[in-house]
Amino acid sequence: MKYLNVAFAFARFVLIAAMIPFAIGWRTPLFASWRYIALAVLIILPLILIAFEFLMLRRSKAPHSSPRALRFVSFATILFGAVAFGATATLEGQFLYKRNAVLSADTRELERLGRHVLVGYRDPAMLHALIERRAAAGVFLSALNVEGKSVVTVSQEIAALQDIRRQQNLDALWIATDQEGGAVSRLSPPLARMPALAEIVALHRDHAERQLAVAQYAARQGRELAAMGVNLNFAPVVDLNHGIVNPDDRLSRIASRAISGDPVVVTEVARLYCTTLMMTGVHCTLKHFPGLGRVYDDTHRVTAQLDASAGELEASDWMPFRQLMSEDAAFTMLGHARLMALDKERPASFSQAVVKGMLRENWKHDGVLITDDFSMGAVTLSGEGPAGGAIEALNAGVDLVLVSYDPDQYFYIMDALLKADRDGRLRPKALQASDARLRRAAAIKPGNSSPLHSGDSAINRTH
Questions:
Q1: Do 330 and 367 meet the contact criterion of CB atoms below 8 Å apart?
Q2: Can you give the CATH number for the domain in which 114 is found?
Q3: Which one from 298, 343, 372, 373 is the annotated catalytic residue?
Q4: Antiparallel, parallel or unpaired: β 179-181 and 184-185
Q5: Does residue 83 share a domain with residue 123?
Q6: 193 and 342 housed in the same domain
Q7: Which whole number is the average pLDDT over 362-391?
Q8: Which of 176, 264, 392, 415 could cross-link 232 (Cys pair, CB 3.0–4.6 Å)?
Q9: Whether 307 is catalytic
């Protein structure tokens, strides 16, 4: 019995010790999908173990005659339980404080900074609160938001949000989603699942047939998205397919999503897709600059590097971006890989050298730049984190910071932006230039976007 009691005591200690890392990091995006369950476990279980240890010590008839090691384990369990409980409660308290600070901030401040953040949601009531406070530029729709709903129901929900925006005399919300086709089809169902563009290209080797097929594909996809209320699609993927496959990469999988390994084909297909999509009133998004086709690690989970030289990238991976980014209706999504040739310390999405130095100054690009999701590991594991990264992104010339998978990160980011704005750490000229780009993009309607440079006849045959 004595050995059983010792084993049981050590088991309790191991359990509470194992909880410490979770208690310290439970507010990271990794726990976003079951955060409230994690909160309950991390609050209740330590309290139960602490109470049990005190009870066991009190029930001992002669505590001082108990083995010293056993008493030490009990006290250690109590100490670790207090640490786990304290860390959990502290992080939750900090989050609630920041959320309250954001929601109680001046509406004019929220509007000025909120127009540069696009947010996903898990709680519709919280989303409505942000929209009513003018605290976001738009909404990201995920599979979670449309699960079990019809197209009509989703479109009505979006229309209600746009009505709020209209009453505020502001530009329409950007309603964004990831509807690439194939494996990345966030709105299927309720929308019908369509193949990836890569499958269309592989199926139609003849140039004319491919042009027609891509135009028909984009027209159908655009009409369905527009009917739902979506006006911004995070497609097409213009990363080149270099055939790199990482068995541990379960989310990026660029080799299965890229249109082609040929930059000429990618440019042609992406241009036709974007122009056709815009004819339905939906903006396209070129992703993921500076290119993930050569990147081995998955930026959803860890930091990643793009090691190719600038010259090598100019001759291949950047060709589609350079040719298509000049078209006003196209957004460009910045990925989180570190472009080692320019900045070894920061993800490209908030690197001054990449965004300000290369894109805005050297390339003279004046279109809308949006980041990939700031809930991703390459950002949360960076030295700046989502909050610091957002400040650097806007100062560098990024227009929209995306916070989709873990909406709670929005409050950390917006709290940091509000403080930076008040402290003079946000560049007014950068924000003003970004405001102008966003207004110009919002003003682009079907029929007045950049002209199609190739494939016009294929478009005409679809309408």
A1: yes
A2: 3.20.20.300
A3: 372
A4: antiparallel
A5: no
A6: yes
A7: 97
A8: 176
A9: no
Q: Beta-carbon neighbour count of residue 258 at 10 Å?
A: 24
- Which residue, 42, 75, 103, sits at the end of a domain? 103
Number of folded domains that form the chain: 2
**Residue 172 token pair:** 């329409």
Q: What is the mean pLDDT of residues 344-355?
A: 98
Average pLDDT, rounded, for the chain: 93
Sheet with 401-403, side-by-side order of all strands: 232-233, 174-177, 138-141, 117-120, 401-403
- C-alpha distances in angstroms, 107 versus 11, 101, 118, 168? 52, 12, 17, 12
Q: Is the model's pLDDT at 65 over the cut of 70?
A: no
pLDDT in tens, 246-288: 999 989 999 999 999 999 999 999 999 999 999 999 999 999 9
Task: Determine which helix (DSSP H) or strand (DSSP E) holds 139, and give its type and residue range.
Answer: strand 138-141
pLDDT at residue 62 is higher than 60: no
Please compute Rg for the chain using Cα positions: 25
Neighbouring-strand partners of residue 371: 334
Residue of 116, 242, 288, 300 marked catalytic: 300
Active site residue 64: no
| pTM metric for this prediction | 0.92
- Domain of 241? 108-460
